[in-house]
Amino acid sequence: MAEKKSLSGYWRTTFLIGLGFFTMGLMDPLYDNYIPMFLGYYIESSSLVGTVMTLDNILAIFLIPVFSALSDRTRTRIGRRMPYIITLLPLSALFFAMVPFSALESFIFLFATIFLLNIFKQAVRGPVVALMPDMVPADLRSEANGVINTMGGLATILGTILLARLMDVFVNVPGVGRVDKILAFPVASVFVIVAVVLLFVFVKEKNSTVVTEKEREEKPKEPMMKSLNAIFSEKEKSALFILLSLLCWFIAYQGILPFIGVYTMEELGTSAGTAALSSGMVGVAYAVFAVPSGKFAHKHGRKKTIRWSLFAIVVVLLLVFLHGILTGGMNPTLRLLSFWALLFLFGIFWVTVVTNSFPMLWQMADYQTIGVYTGAYYFFSQLASIVAPPLSGGAIDLFGYPALFIFGLVFMLIAYFLMSNVHRGEPVDD
User: Fold this and answer.
1) Are the beta carbons of 297 and 141 closer than 8 angstroms?
2) In the chain, what percentage of residues exceed pLDDT 90?
3) Contact of 96 with 185, CB cutoff 8 Å
4) Which of 61, 128, 269, 361 has the CA that lies 20 to 30 A from 142?
5) What is the C-alpha separation between 54 and 37, in angstroms, rounded?
6) Which of the 8 DSSP states describes residue 158?
7) What are phi and psi of 172, to 5 degrees?
8) CATH superfamily placement of domain 222-430
9) How much is the average pLDDT of 381-404?
10) DSSP 3-state of 178
11) Residue pLDDT, tens place only, 255-289
């Protein structure tokens, strides 16, 4: 057996590429937590606010696959992903900084800002993600993805714990006066700009001229839709089955996530502030175990690691479902702590699935189609985020909040069985 490589020679590159993920980790939690509040200045209906909040998911379904595939076919002196990163990420930062100021002006101005922010933020996501497999060898991508996911997790912690506190700081806005709920967004945007500068200065993509000549000799370029269709028309269906699997596990996760805070308030009696710590347990596990999970898969195999983790999640969700029954007479504090412990355990196995599934899909692509496969991953994951909340919400309406975890359990179990049909994507595969 060939000796397995180490990530040690790629730490610097991986860290710098991870800055792109870091920017997303900064913007996304602030967006999710405070955009509904800004919309609430003008919209009374929670349903209508929720509809506007799905805008980023809807745009992501179309923009991520298109711009990922476009970046596959782009050839410039600075590379094929970098032109999108150095233009679209700064534009994202600009409109992100404008959000709280536009909220002070009018609903039309606020909505236009949110719309343009999502255009740029979702368009750049694919090229940012596809940069890593361009720069890191295939058999090291699970470990590299672990490092990058850790940076995204740390950015989420920074955004929700430190930058969010800036929302309470009052600043003087010309023409408006002294107001709060402003500062976190422009400060986060400064971090994004700094990350883009560091990424551009220190990460040099492969010589695009040489690559282009090689590709012209070995394999002619194909239309984008034909490349995308190739994923679904292959005789060997591993790529299709991993996409269907991730659709199911993201339906499970995205179905549980929006309601977990409400569950802790309704069933465990927590305050609104404490309820946020429930999803925080998953986030902490995500940051701590992303790198170890990539190393574990490198040693034991990605498919086995993902299937073991999916089965473990099924067991954890069953325990969470039973938690309310088994701990009914327990001290409230111990009851809450045991619930958080289960969510932390869930987070360990969840980050293991997420960290290793992307590298499996990339392993099935060639150099010309990495962006196409990246776009397909996001298409299915974003589709799940749109369809899952109504489905899990319906289960709650019919059977009560504990049904939430049976809902997640069923879809995780389906994903577990679908993964048995995946036969490619290991580090040793060609």
Assistant:
1) no
2) 28
3) yes
4) 61
5) 15
6) I
7) -90, 115
8) MFS general substrate transporter like domains (1.20.1250.20)
9) 85
10) strand
11) 887 777 778 877 888 765 466 567 778 878 877 88
Is 189 within 8 Å of 23 (Cβ atoms)? no
Predicted confidence (pLDDT) per residue in 81-108, tens digit: 899 999 999 999 999 999 999 999 999 9
Q: Look at residue 205 and tell me whether its pLDDT is greater than 70.
A: yes
| Residue 366 and residue 301 in contact, taking contact as beta carbons nearer than 8 Å | no
Q: What distances in angstroms separate CA 238 from CA 186, 219, 293, 300, 411, one per listed residue?
A: 43, 22, 22, 19, 19
Residue 419 has pLDDT above 80, yes or no: yes
> Cα(374)–Cα(69) distance, rounded to whole angstroms?
8
Helix residue ranges per DSSP H, 106-207: 107-135, 141-157, 184-202
Q: How far, in Å, CA of 40 to CA of 47, rounded?
A: 11
**CATH 1.20.1250.20 residue window(s) in the chain:** 1-221, 222-430
Radius of gyration, CA atoms only, the chain: 22
Q: Enumerate residues 6+ apart whose C-beta is below 8 A from 319.
A: 342
Can you give the pTM of this predicted structure? 0.73
Residue of 418, 428, 15 whose CA lies nearest to 241: 418
SS3 172: strand
Torsion over CA: 357, 378, 118, 134 (sign): positive
Predicted pLDDT at 207:
45
- Rounded to the nearest integer, the mean pLDDT of the chain is 82
Cα distance between residue 325 and residue 375, in whole Å: 42
Residue 48 is predicted with a pLDDT of 75
CB 152 within 8 A of CB 138: no
Alpha carbon distance 24, 29 (integer Å): 9
How many Å apart are CA 51 and CA 55, to the nearest integer? 7
